[in-house]
Design brief:
With about 450 residues, the protein is an alpha/beta fold. It is built from 14 helices and 16 strands. Helix 4 packs parallel to helix 5, helix 10 crosses helix 11 and helix 11 crosses helix 12.
Length: about 450
């Protein structure tokens, strides 16, 4: 690339081709990888990773594969618009077979014998399906049956499904409940926030050999986030175009004028993600120039305030794992107990299928839009919600709490998974949640 020598770069920093060397380890990317790694040491590991287009799923998978030990045998299937028979053929082809003239029963027998043989040789077998949102219901059912292949001691096939948000929606359909019940861990990769967007850009420049700290000037980062919405692939496209614009104009640094020129050449508008939060976040900043925080949470124990936190728009996790934004050290709180999702419309609290539940007064709720002053019980602690938005931004209608349905809530019977101080981290993999699942002690590795 002609601008490399001009900016003293060793490599193109914003290429679109997935490259594990350039992977930026945001908090959520690190957690998603930890979930994938759990499939190696959990014999019946079944993980689902979803994310928007360009969120870095494929790069994350490549990084995971690059670090597998020699005792792991894996197959990667990324062409997913297949029939059930074609899918089995694709899997066996990845494992080194040529199964193209076999009937389905022969394919299943071949796969079964291969898995048992690998298990006998001390090997672990992992099947990774990328672009899994394109799988038909019949193929997903085939995957469920494959996940049940086992010896007299344990299952012998680990499975990772990765795909766009449509995969998450597909798995919630009634006909796939049996498959969902086999999923141990599930995680959704969202866009990068403003701070992460800056760190992502600086990280890629550093990997590419940049020795100039202000190659991208300070005022550019807000503009980049505004037009990309924090989506890594869009960040790469915009930054690469901006470097070309700066090079063409003979500048040593990328300025806001270069970002504006790149946006004009790409014919982009300000990015609006699936929630529309971007435009609304700008409105919040205009109304309240002092702070972009719109949510304040008081954490109470025995009626006393033990923590007082405020947050910008986005997702906040509540739990007893130290990496959570709201950390509650209590045996009655799950590692990832609940999440708060806030935007200009307000704040929603959602139970992450915790053991002890989330309560509004005496009523257990799964998902509820909070009103200013609401008090939510989490274990023996209370969370008091304060809406920091200006009055004109506050919604007037108060929806009813969404009750837990007996079939969907998956709440254990009392005593089935009681928390105590000596509970092992491995037991907490039994908690199955939407969007985020507690991980074991490797989470902090």
């Amino acid at each position: 690339m002609s601008y490399l020598s001009h900016f003293n770069l060793e490599d193109q920093p914003f290429r679109l081709t997935p490259d594990p060397d350039y992977l930026y380890w945001s908090k959520q990317h690190a957690r998603a990888k930890a979930y994938m790694e759990s499939t190696i040491w959990l014999a019946d590991g079944f993980v689902v990773i979803t994310g928007e287009i360009g969120s870095g799923k494929t790069t994350l998978l490549q990084s995971f594969l690059a670090e597998l030990d020699n005792d792991v045998v894996y197959a990667v299937v990324s062409q997913t618009q297949l029939t059930a028979t074609q899918f089995l053929q694709a899997v066996l082809t990845e494992f080194g077979f040529k199964p193209f003239k076999m009937r389905k029963v022969e394919l299943l027998d071949m796969l079964n014998m291969f898995l048992i043989e690998q298990y006998s040789n001390g090997k672990k077998v992992v099947l990774i399906v990328d672009e899994a949102q394109n799988l038909s219901r019949k193929v997903l059912e085939e995957i469920r049956l494959m996940s049940g292949i086992e010896t007299h001691k344990e299952k012998v096939l680990r499975i990772i499904l990765a795909g766009q948000p449509e995969l998450r929606d597909k798995l919630e359909t009634p006909g796939l409940k049996q498959l969902v019940q086999r999923v141990r861990l599930r995680f959704h990769l969202g866009p990068l926030d403003r701070r992460e967007t800056r760190e992502y850009i600086e990280h890629r420049l550093e990997v590419a050999g940049c020795d100039k700290k202000d190659l991208v000037v300070e005022q550019c980062f807000e503009m980049i986030h505004r037009y990309t919405g924090g989506v890594p692939r869009l960040i790469n496209t915009l930054c690469d175009s901006a470097l070309l614009c700066a090079f063409a104009d003979g500048r040593d640094s990328v300025t806001p004028a270069d970002i504006a020129s790149a946006v004009a050449e790409l014919d982009w508008q300000e990015h609006e993600n699936s929630t529309g939060v971007h435009e609304k976040m700008r409105e919040i900043e205009q109304r309240d120039p002092e702070s972009s925080h719109i949510t304040r949470i008081e954490v109470l124990a025995d009626g006393e305030i033990v923590d007082d936190l405020s947050f910008e728009p986005g997702r906040v996790i509540v739990g007893r794992s130290p990496d959570n934004e709201i950390f509650i050290r209590s045996k009655f709180v799950s590692r990832h107990h609940a999440q708060l999702v806030s935007n200009d419309d307000g704040c929603v609290i959602e139970d992450l299928n915790s053991t002890n539940g989330v309560f509004l007064g005496e009523r257990q709720v799964k998902k509820y839009r909070l009103q200013d002053g609401d008090v939510v019980s989490v274990g023996v602690h209370e969370l008091v919600y304060h809406d920091l938005r200006t009055p004109e931004g506050v919604a007037e209608d108060e929806p009813e709490p969404e009750d837990l349905d007996a079939e969907d809530s998956r709440i254990e019977e009392p005593g089935e998974h009681e928390f105590d101080e000596e509970q092992s981290d491995e037991d907490e993999f039994e908690e199955s949640i939407e969007g985020e699942i507690p991980i074991d002690k490797q989470e902090t590795a």
